[in-house]
Amino acid sequence: GQQLNQSPQSMFIQEGEDVSMNCTSSSIFNTWLWYKQDPGEGPVLLIALYKAGELTSNGRLTAQFGITRKDSFLNISASIPSDVGIYFCAGRSVTDKLIFGTGTRLQVFP
Amino acid sequence: SAVISQKPSRDICQRGTSLTIQCQVDSQVTMMFWYRQQPGQSLTLIATANQGSEATYESGFVIDKFPISRPNLTFSTLTVSNMSPEDSSIYLCSVNTDRGRGYTFGSGTRLTVV
Questions:
Q1: CA-CA distance, A66 to A26, in Å (whole number)?
Q2: How would residue A2 be classed by pLDDT, with cut points 50, 70 and 90?
Q3: Binding-face residues of A in 78-97 toward B, CB within 8 A
């Protein structure tokens, strides 16, 4: 099935560092979503973006919906050990389906 | 947002058998979605299940292999039929809530086929 291009594939950072990841698509989406998945769990929604150009924050997380509606980024500031996990972007298609990115595996070292 | 209960949480099955996964939502929803997440991979949509109609399958997925039931607005099942080791994956259900602005996921069913 279709997937979004997400980068980087993995990140190994020290606690306190900032993190940035992004997602690009050849298709336009009306909604961009960012999820975090912990081992043995389903994805949990972090941030939802509904308008091109929208910049939204949720605590230490900030995400933006690209002007072209074909990309989005997620920033995490001052990372902590519990930020460890896999982060997925997802675009919502006009048929209400979610298309997921390939994922970014984040590891935080104390 | 909706709360989803998915059962079983995990299972180990013999090849050639079938497993039915249940998804129960605490509110009525129009659309329910079934995803597969192969080991170390992202999520891939299997099908969309609407109450009162046949499920709509994505390319690469067929009803004979993944039959879906949607008897009411709070419940759905996905069956993985005639399993092989390649079917070993996490299977997740998801619902579209908050008037389409949010998607909530169950905790998944981790299936291992031996």
A1: 13
A2: low
A3: 88, 90, 92, 96-97
Rounded Cα–Cα distance for residues B51 and B60 (Å): 23
Contact in structure between B91 and B68 (CB atoms under 8 Å): no
In the stretch 47-66 of chain B, residues with CB closer than 8 A to chain A read 48, 58-60
* Rounded Cα gap, residues B28 and B57, in angstroms: 22
What's CA B49's distance to the chain center, in Å?
9
| Cβ contact, residue pair A1, B94, below 8 Å | no
By three-state DSSP, how is residue A83 classified? helix
pLDDT tier, B98 (very low <50, low <70, confident <90, very high otherwise): low
